[in-house]
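hey m, so remember when u said the tokens were messed up on ur end? i reran from scratch. heres the input so u can diff it against urs
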Amino acid sequence: MMRTKQNGAIGRALALSILVVTAPAAGEGNWPGFRGARASGHGTGEPPITWNLESGENVRWKTAIPGLAHSSPIVWGDRLFVTTAVSEGGDDELKVGLYGDVKPVEDDSVHSFRIYALDAGSGEILWEREAHRGVPKVKRHTKSTHANPTPATDGQRVIAFFGSEGLYAWDMDGEPLWSKDLGVLDAGFYVAKAAQWGFSSSPILVDGKVVVQCDVQGQSFVAAFDAATGEELWRTERDEVPTFGSPTVYEHAGRKIVAVNGWRHIGAYDLATGAEVWRFRGGGDIPTPTPVVAHGYIYITNAHGNLAPICAVRTDARGAIDLADGQRSSDGIAWCHFRDGAYMQTPIVVGDVLYVCRDNGVLGAYDAISGEEIYRERPGGGGTSGFTASAVAANGHLYYSNETGDVFVVKAGREFELVTTNAMDEIVMATPAIADGVIYFRTRGHVVAIGDTS
């Protein structure tokens, strides 16, 4: 494997002298979209590291949600929002595990695409709304659902994206504000176009704009809409195959910039105008992880095909920053490993350590500044279960969930320490949320609140 040779201690000192990294906040105790504020994965408070669903230890509440969905819960104040797709008698089978079958589920049943608002303290369902009803326009993978994108909120409205079934906005009390039909968004395998897999990119909501990344069969694009009215503000076309990650936003030199993963076009766009800021290509050809920003870098990873890179792009990058053959850095890329990346999970940075977990459960820890590998371990043991949900962190601990519902609590730091393992007793494919010391898990059939009950 190719490794960078930069001195880790010197690199850390230089970077930390420029920028002290803390998790971005969207308001105390809020988790406004996929992986929280700006996809950082950092929650507030001191959530438990042990719990037991059978005895009720540290289980605040457990609320059943109908249908099938991999969207994560989001939290704002005392409200939690989650989406789902409910089939009218169709096949809700979900096949998890480590396998490579590309065939979609053959299900032509009518589905109800819904959003639920729950009381974050009690789990009571406050309201539910149906966004759309009909036969899904695109089939799903056997490991996927028709409600994969996580909703987003800014405390004034909540946005839900159901791919080909539309983009929707409600106020916090469930009154509909607007909806947009973005056409058929077929995000499947570009090599075998009959292998439809369902749409998964989550919207983000920042500065009164809803930003969506739509990399699909046909014309891919990134677009921004007015959060209050739904008016399209800009749309930038992309030469890209279907991808599955979500956009994130970072700030540099006084402006906000949208970063996106990709294969032909990993890049960034000006939030105000949609103008391209930087771009490069390469890596895995089915990119899924969302970019993460810390220490003046945008961390990009993907894995499928010949390469599985982890790259640290500088936030001052501009223009084409492609790596030439054999290069591990360029004017815009600080460092890159070519075969250590993640296929499904979005990475996380805690302190000066970047954590990247593969779908087989192998966890790699890297110096976030120099890229030097610190350790490589397997928290889940033998690797018989897949890992799809992305890690979240709070109070010095990382929470990793495998698909069969085991949650591995790892101590953050430069030495690997598995603290404990907890069972959710159901399939877990969605990334949890953390707010005010409570972890909200989305399982196969429930939302479960894990918090101190002593």
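this time it looks ok to me. The longest strand covers residues 125-134. if urs says something different then somethings off w ur setup not the seq
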